[in-house]
Amino acid sequence: MSLKGVELQIAIPKTFDAGKMADQHHQKTINQQLDANEALNREIERKQLAVNKSEGMDAISEEDENDASNNGQTSSEQNKKKKQQQEQDAQHPFKGNLFDFSG
Length: 103
What we know:
The chain is mainly α. Helices cover 74% and strands 0% of the residues. 0% of the residues are buried.
């Protein structure tokens, strides 16, 4: 395929334009990936700094209140009550209970 002089006058400028457009597209893709990575890093950092559970704080304050009200009791009595409380908290809702499914 041979190109004539007139055809080269049209083809060469379009080649430069196509190269610029390809370069811009490539840069745009790279910038989008960098922005997505930066957003992901911000999201990860936000999740790391967020408080996930606050239930533990309630349990601690209840134990402190119980300790303050039971100052007159001996430590062995307090230990027994704590063990009983932990056993009650640890009971599973249906394991160990018999259910009649023959119905």
